[in-house]
Write a structure and sequence with these properties.
Blueprint (H helix, E strand, L loop, with lengths): L11 H11 L4 H12 L5 H10 L4 H10 L12
Length: 79
């Protein structure tokens, strides 16, 4: 079964927390795995600040989604 989720920039932090929870991960666990896999050193607080301030890079989202086994798909809308 394929699960799809439409991410919304207004509540991206909550959506990522939800996807992590589905995998049994906390944001701390998730960030630790991202740091280990991608050679990063920043903490979960930095991640939270980026999400809250909307200064989150698409590359950071891609790293998180890779850990959670999701991919980014861009789809044209009818609007």
């Amino acid at each position: 079964m394929i699960n799809e989720y439409k991410l919304d920039t207004e509540n991206l932090k909550e959506q990522i927390k939800y996807l992590a929870a589905l995998q049994g991960l906390t944001m701390v666990n998730l960030k630790e795995q991202v740091n280990q896999k991608f050679g990063k050193t920043d903490g979960v607080r930095n991640l939270g600040n980026k999400l809250r301030n909307k200064t989150f890079r698409i590359s950071e989202l891609a790293e998180i989604l890779e850990i959670l086994h999701y991919e980014i798909i861009i789809r044209k809308t009818n609007s």
